[in-house]
From TrEMBL:
Pfam families: Pantoate_transf
Gene from which the chain derives: panB
UniProt-listed HAMAP family: PanB
Protein name in UniProt: 3-methyl-2-oxobutanoate hydroxymethyltransferase
Lineage: Bacteria, Bacillati, Actinomycetota, Actinomycetes, Micrococcales
Catalytic activity entry: (6R)-5,10-methylene-5,6,7,8-tetrahydrofolate + 3-methyl-2-oxobutanoate + H2O = 2-dehydropantoate + (6S)-5,6,7,8-tetrahydrofolate
Keywords, comma-separated and alphabetical: Cytoplasm, Magnesium, Metal-binding, Methyltransferase, Pantothenate biosynthesis, Transferase
Organism: Pseudoclavibacter terrae
Quaternary structure annotation from Swiss-Prot or TrEMBL: Homodecamer; pentamer of dimers.
Length: 279
C-alpha cells in the first residue's frame, strides 16, 4: 500500500518532477478540480497537490448538461483565477472539446494560450493512441501534458454514455492507450472509470504516475470534481464519489436564515449599522 504525501515531505511548489518522485517513493498524489481563486486558495492551504481547471466547469459552473459546450475563452478566465489563488499546487487546465481535435498544431496553439493567458503549469487532454502525436507535439514545445484515458467525457456519445472502459476484450485497448501517452511524453495519466484490477496493473506497468477517478485504490493518486466531493451539486452522484461534506445543505440553510432575518427585520441590527456622527 502506498503512503500518503505528508505535509512535511511536500514540496513548497509542486512541479512535474515531483510526480515521478512521488511514484518512486510510494507517496500518493492528491488532486481536485477548481474553477476560481477562492476555492483554489482553500484547497491549496489544505495541501492538495494538483488543481485541475476541468472542462467539468461546463456542468458545475455554467449549467450545461455535458462538458462539450465549454470553450477555451470560457475556461481561460477560470484557469487564470485558479493560478492566482495558489502558491503551492500544480495548476492544470483542460483543453476543451473542439480545441485540439484538428491535430497537433491546433492543440499546441490552444495549449500556448492557456500557458500565456492563464498562467497554468500544464494542460490535460483526452485520448490515448489517437492523441499520441498531439501529446508529443505539445511536450516537444516545452508544455507538460497530463493525459486522460479510459472513460473520456468529451467522447461520451461515441462511447455510448457513461460506460466503464476496459472490461473484457477492451482491456488491451486501454493498456495500449496508457503505453501510447507515456511514450508520447505525458508526465501523468488520468484513468477514469476503469476496472480496479486493470488500473492497478497499468499503474505497475507504467513509469509515469496514474491518477484515478473511478479506477480503484491502487492508482498513484486520486482526483474528484470538488462539487461532487463536497456535496454542493445536485442530481446523480457517480458511484466512485465519496462525499466529504454537505455544503449544499449548509449553504441552503444559511441563505434561508438570511432571508428570514431580512424579512423579519432582525438583520441588520444596531451593531451592524452606522451611527450619525454629524452632531
Amino acid at each position: 500500500m502506498m503512503a500518503c504525501m505528508s505535509q512535511a515531505s511536500a514540496p513548497k511548489r509542486v512541479r512535474i518532477r515531483h510526480f515521478q518522485a512521488a511514484k518512486a517513493a510510494g507517496e500518493r498524489i492528491t488532486a481536485l478540480t477548481s474553477y476560481d481563486a477562492m476555492t483554489a486558495a482553500v484547497f491549496d492551504e489544505a495541501g492538495i497537490d494538483v488543481l485541475l481547471v476541468g472542462d467539468s466547469a461546463a456542468t458545475t459552473v455554467l449549467g450545461e448538461t455535458s462538458t462539450l459546450p465549454v470553450t477555451v475563452d470560457e475556461l481561460i478566465p477560470m484557469a487564470r483565477s485558479v493560478a492566482r489563488g495558489v502558491s503551492r499546487a500544480l495548476v492544470v487546465a483542460d483543453l476543451p472539446f473542439g480545441s485540439y481535435e484538428r491535430g497537433p498544431e491546433q492543440a499546441l496553439d490552444t495549449a500556448v494560450r492557456f500557458m500565456k493567458e492563464a498562467g497554468v503549469q500544464a494542460v490535460k487532454l483526452e485520448g490515448g493512441v489517437r492523441s499520441h502525436a498531439t501529446i508529443k507535439r505539445i511536450v516537444e514545445a516545452g508544455i507538460p501534458v497530463m493525459a486522460h484515458i479510459g472513460y473520456t467525457p468529451q467522447s461520451e456519445h461515441g462511447l455510448g454514455g457513461h460506460v466503464v472502459q476496459g472490461r473484457g476484450d477492451s482491456a488491451e485497448r486501454v493498456r495500449a492507450d496508457a503505453r501510447a501517452v507515456q511514450d508520447a511524453g505525458a508526465f501523468s495519466v488520468v484513468l477514469e472509470m476503469v476496472p480496479a484490477v486493470l488500473a492497478a496493473e497499468i499503474t505497475r506497468e507504467l513509469a509515469i504516475p496514474t491518477i484515478g477517478i473511478g479506477a480503484g485504490a491502487e492508482c498513484d493518486g486520486q482526483i474528484l470534481v470538488w462539487t461532487d466531493a463536497m456535496g454542493l451539486g445536485t442530481g446523480r452522484v457517480p458511484r466512485f464519489v465519496r462525499k466529504y461534506a454537505d455544503l449544499r445543505t449548509t449553504l441552503l440553510d444559511a441563505a434561508s436564515a438570511y432571508r428570514d432575518e431580512v424579512k423579519s427585520g432582525a438583520f441588520p441590527s444596531a451593531a451592524e449599522s452606522f451611527e450619525d456622527q454629524t452632531s
